[in-house]
Write a structure and sequence with these properties.
The complex is a heterodimer. Chain A is of the alpha+beta class. Chain A is built from 14 helices and 8 strands. Chain A is globular, with a radius of gyration of 22 Å. By secondary structure, chain B is of the alpha/beta class. Chain B has 4 domains: 118 residues, Alpha-Beta Plaits (2-Layer Sandwich); 113 residues, Alpha-helical ferredoxin (Fumarate Reductase Iron-sulfur Protein, Chain B, domain 2, Orthogonal Bundle), CATH 1.10.1060.10; 164 residues, 3-Layer(bba) Sandwich (FAD/NAD(P)-binding domain), CATH 3.50.50; 151 residues, FAD/NAD(P)-binding domain (3-Layer(bba) Sandwich). In chain B, the strands form 6 sheets. Chain B has a 5-stranded parallel β-sheet, sandwiched between helices. Chain B has a 5-stranded parallel β-sheet with strand order 11-18-12-13-14. Chain B is globular, with a radius of gyration of 31 Å. In chain B, 48% of the residues are buried. The chains are: A alpha+beta, B alpha/beta. Chains A and B meet through α2, α5, α6 and α7 of A and α1, α2, α3 and α5 of B.
């Protein structure tokens, strides 16, 4: 049970003079007293962002205590990978996060390349960068719709999810798949860009910006949205280290952490990625920061499209991947997903299958421990908005 | 609260007048992208049923199943992939890995069936609306899931080898062998094609694991002459290799050679567990005629089973055609000895210079042994029978090759013509070229044959290397007459050969008598095939033996002839090549064991 009114992280304080009673610094919640109600939000609920549950104890419509439950979505990818050849792990990992599968693909391929000492060709690195940045756009658009929808503003959700589908069209052309792209094969990428791809992508960037202008006007510059998001789920700079908060959520507190800048991978080192930060640390600051980051991704895609080399190999000289053995070693590869640091720890033992793979998604901390803290003292109706604001992705919590 | 924040959301109404983003007609199918990973297609004209798709599928969605109308032939298992769409994740690794490019995907993505079983289907066999669809995901030439490029084999340069009989092929080192072994797809088409059905993927996997002891054990399960096979096998396995469809076949022969080259001879009995073989000797004796691959293979497996075996060999050395028909630069004698010495170490006795039929009769063997295996090989030359072919300076290739091995000097002429287009013709051409080079310092040898170069039976590398050694190959001519002047060979007259086989594939050469050519020569060698010498069969035995219409001894699946005690194998039954001989010997040994246990 979280530390209620004593918590130093409270954004705004509720009146706790009468209930719950505190004993040794811990709340005493007696359900038999009829003061409290136990309420499950999830695992099947439109207000959760996937298959997870929040066990709430509420007093009126105010949340007194929250406990997160996961375990509804466990697919044992890490274990499955121990039973598969390295190449067979490649189509598996994209499923770890549905809205943004490419970060997983990148991390697992990069980990294998790192362990096997393979240098990925220039052109493939550019194509990977494009893929990752497009996937960021897709993920942010989905998040934007979710954030608006969770506060009851369905129109924005329809617009952005619709626009995301046009980005999925581009993915379909580029990779052959809409949702699971399976594009970043160990050693490089699978396909070059189809004819006319660049022009279609540039056209879509213009349309997306136009849509974002509408979103800004209706969603970010909206008195109701502001009143609900401002002050919700305030995260302070001190909490960043205590909870291990990463990505846009940490940046919204003023912490400069973006792996694209701090530890550039693929071609980010050659791109002008700006460190976007905010200082307020509440749900609105996060929304606004993600909105700016989405615009930056559109800029980056424009730049990448101009810089992808026309010629050159797209895959390193690879051995027969059916019999591919990677020398014993261990590595941790990370990338910046829309939720923050997304990492893969991989151990090889010299055989043809990984000895251990561990996927680390940002939602693991954001949506389990942090959510339990932030959910207390807010209204039930704001919980969905808070979960989306933390960009909760249950599939990456459980793998 | 700013006034802007109150008014600005009202802009949402602007959208009411705009065209919606949804597509106009959501009922009709939107075609998938040109590159879309949709439903599977399979081109049966290309598919070889190698099962690599099944192997790479991480969902176990693919099973190889028999399909009506698809026959098992060399290099095609006859099976075809059946895909279970309840398991498939459309990752298309099966498409990327397909060595023939037969398996592809269409850009179709909707399919409604009443029966759930329908979703487990065999693309290409089951009728689907997308089988003919042109768009969809195909294997990209830009990426490689499997390695199609063979590790180059180091060889002696032409100038280093054209005067001597030093072995040309240097063999793989450990690094090269491991790299080459990595390329194996483990499809097993080679096992089916190899006459001895060697566990090729098994020993290649052992090379990858750097476990050469195990590799050696796998080799000896079906082949007791790996040094010989590792050098001169006709490697039908490589022709069948799935990689051959899009690149270089796996160098199976060189990998076999790598294993045996690395393991020292004195370790064999320990590794193969034959160090206490003498404890289990049976009181049964088998005689073997001919110390060639077939006879020694039979002897080896009989010895392993505990039989006392004795081999009778007409020539002074063991190996048969492997020693007396194949030049030393392809198969050094010490390597033959390594294989055979090991077989002899198991108690197999070889009596040299003993020709069955003259020095000892077959009846005598029959009376003193429980069974007899004959693998006497094809040691007789065949003549073109053109005028002049009876001259003393017209030779058979087999005779000359035997003389070279025996160390007898050959009266090499300055100008030689060889008739024949097979590997034996190349052997004699290159052997004589070396002898000419040693004797005269230059090569003047020409080889001609009926077949044009594209259908010459000789291996391509043999033709290339012969030319590198300055022999002239002029294929596509039929011998007409060997001109004799004053009792000496003057040259060979040839006419253009238009076709070698008739429409039924039977040998029936057609010539254009108008197109003529003359090759000057003072020595002619005929190498147009070999014949068998069955003179050791007495009239009595012959009359009890059954023969095939083509004059070969009739044998059953165990190589047992119609005389129950007589087993026959090797070149006189199948082949001619080493691996058939070895395979025959292996099966005959098991047949003899069954026969003697039943007796």
């Amino acid at each position: 049970m979280s530390n209620l009114s004593e918590s130093k992280y409270r954004g705004f304080k509720a009146d706790r003079s009468k209930y719950p009673e505190m004993e040794n610094g811990k709340p005493v919640i007696d359900l038999e007293s009829h003061r409290y109600t136990k309420l499950w939000q999830g695992p099947q609920h439109p207000g959760v962002t996937g298959n997870m549950a929040v066990e709430l104890i509420v007093n009126g419509d105010e949340i007194v205590s929250a406990k997160t439950h996961v375990g509804y979505l466990h697919r044992a990818f890490e274990k499955l990978m121990e039973r598969r050849r390295y190449i067979q792990c490649f189509p598996l990992v994209c499923r770890i996060c549905v809205p943004e599968p490419d970060t997983n693909e990148y991390c697992v391929s990069a980990a294998m390349e790192d362990l096997a000492g393979i240098t990925v060709p220039e052109r493939a690195l550019w194509l990977r960068t494009l893929n990752l940045e497009m996937s960021r756009i897709g993920s942010y658009l989905m998040w934007l719709g979710g954030q608006a929808g969770s506060l009851g503003m369905g129109a924005v959700g329809q617009w952005t999810i619709g626009m995301r589908d046009f980005w999925l069209d581009l993915f379909e052309e580029m990779t052959g798949g809409r949702v699971y792209h399976m594009y970043m094969i160990p050693g490089g990428v699978r396909k070059t860009l189809p004819d006319g791809f660049r022009d279609r992508a540039r056209g879509l960037i213009v349309r997306t910006r136009k849509l974002l202008y509408d979103v800004e006007n209706t969603f970010l510059s909206n008195a109701i949205i502001k009143s609900r998001l401002q002050g919700l789920g305030v995260i302070t700079t001190e909490m960043v280290d205590e909870f291990g908060i990463v990505g846009p959520i940490a940046r919204a507190t003023g912490r400069e952490c973006d792996i694209r800048i701090n530890n550039p991978y693929v071609k980010y080192g050659e791109l002008d990625v700006k460190m976007l930060t905010s200082t307020v640390g509440d749900a609105y600051a996060r929304a606004e920061l993600r909105y700016r980051d989405l615009h930056q991704s559109l800029d980056l895609v424009t730049e990448i499209l101009n810089r992808i080399p026309e010629d050159g190999p797209i895959q390193a000289d690879m051995p027969n991947l059916l019999n591919w053995k990677i020398p014993a070693g261990q590595t941790y590869v990370k990338a910046e997903s829309t939720r923050g640091e997304h990492g893969f720890y991989m151990v090889s033992d010299g055989s043809g299958k990984p000895r251990r793979v561990f996927a680390r998604g940002a939602s693991y901390t954001h949506a389990i421990s942090l959510l339990e803290e932030l959910a207390v003292n807010i209204s039930i109706s704001d919980l969905a908005g808070l979960m989306v604001s933390l960009h909760t992705c249950p599939p990456e919590i459980e793998r | 609260m700013k006034l802007k924040d109150v008014l600005s959301p009202l802009r949402v109404w602007e959208r009411a007048a705009k065209k919606p983003m949804t597509i106009k007609d959501p009922i009709n199918e939107r075609p998938g992208a040109a590159n879309y990973r949709g439903f599977h297609k399979n081109d049966f004209s290309k598919c070889i049923g190698c099962g690599t798709c099944e192997e790479i599928c991480q969902n176990d969605a693919i099973d190889l199943v028999p399909v009506e109308g698809q026959e098992t032939v060399e290099g095609d298992s006859g099976l075809r992939p059946m895909i279970d769409y309840g398991r498939c994740c459309w990752c298309a690794l099966c498409v990327d890995v397909c060595p023939t490019g037969a398996l592809t995907m269409s850009n179709d993505y909707t399919w409604i069936a009443d029966n759930p079983e329908d979703y487990r289907f065999v693309p290409g066999a089951d009728k689907t609306k997308w089988q003919e669809s042109e768009k969809g995901y195909t294997r990209s030439p830009d990426i490689q899931i499997i390695d199609y490029d063979r590790v180059d084999m180091q060889e002696l340069k032409p100038e280093e080898r054209d005067k001597s009989f030093i072995e040309i092929v240097k063999g793989y080192n450990k690094e090269q062998a491991m790299k080459e072994a990595e390329r194996c797809l483990e499809c097993g088409l080679c096992i089916a094609t190899c006459p001895a059905h060697m566990d090729i993927p098994g020993y290649i996997a052992a090379i990858r694991d750097d476990d050469l002891d195990n590799a050696l054990r796998i080799l000896y399960e079906t082949n007791p002459m790996p040094e010989i096979c590792g050098r001169i096998c006709t490697h039908k396995c490589e022709t069948a290799c799935a990689l051959h469809n899009n690149g270089d076949p796996l160098a199976i022969r060189w990998l076999k050679r790598y294993i045996v080259d690395q393991v020292p001879a004195d370790k064999y009995s320990e590794i193969l567990g034959t160090d206490h073989l003498e404890d289990e000797v049976l009181n049964r004796k088998v005689a073997i005629i001919g110390a060639g691959p077939a006879g020694l293979s039979a002897a080896y497996y009989l010895a392993i089973m505990g039989y006392k075996t004795k081999v009778y060999e007409a020539l002074p050395g063991p190996g048969g055609m492997a020693r007396y028909g194949i030049p030393e630069y392809r198969l050094p004698y010490d390597q033959i000895d390594k294989d055979i010495d090991y077989i002899r170490s198991l108690g197999v006795e070889i009596q040299f210079n003993t020709r069955v039929g003259t020095d000892i009769t077959l009846e005598e063997l029959h009376s003193s042994y429980d069974a007899v295996f004959a693998g006497t090989g094809l040691h007789l030359g065949r003549s073109t029978r053109v005028p002049g072919s009876d001259n003393k300076r017209v030779y058979f290739a087999t005779d000359l090759l035997r003389e070279v091995t025996l160390g007898n000097e050959i009266d090499v002429a300055k100008n030689i013509v060889v008739i024949g287009g097979g590997n034996v013709a190349m052997d004699i051409t290159r052997t004589l070229a070396r002898l000419q080079n040693q004797k005269y310092g230059k090569v003047q040898i020409l080889t001609t044959c009926l077949e044009t170069e594209d259908i010459m039976p000789a291996d391509v590398e043999e033709i290339v290397e012969a030319r590198e050694e300055k022999a002239v190959i002029d294929p596509g001519w039929g011998p007409k007459e060997i001109e004799i002047r004053d009792g000496e060979v003057y040259g060979l007259h040839v006419v253009k050969c238009l076709s070698v086989f008739d429409e039924n594939g039977r040998f029936s050469p057609k010539f254009d008598e108008e197109q003529k050519k003359f090759f000057k020569a003072d020595m002619v060698v005929e190498s147009i095939g070999q014949g068998m010498d069955l003179s050791y069969l007495s009239e009595n035995i012959k009359s009890n033996l059954k023969f095939t219409p083509r004059g070969r001894i009739e044998v059953d699946d165990n190589f047992q002839s119609s005389l129950q005690w007589l087993f026959v194998g090797g070149d006189i039954i199948q082949g001619p090549d080493v691996i058939h001989g070895i395979a025959n010997g292996y099966i005959a040994a098991k047949g003899i064991d069954t026969y003697l246990n039943r007796k």
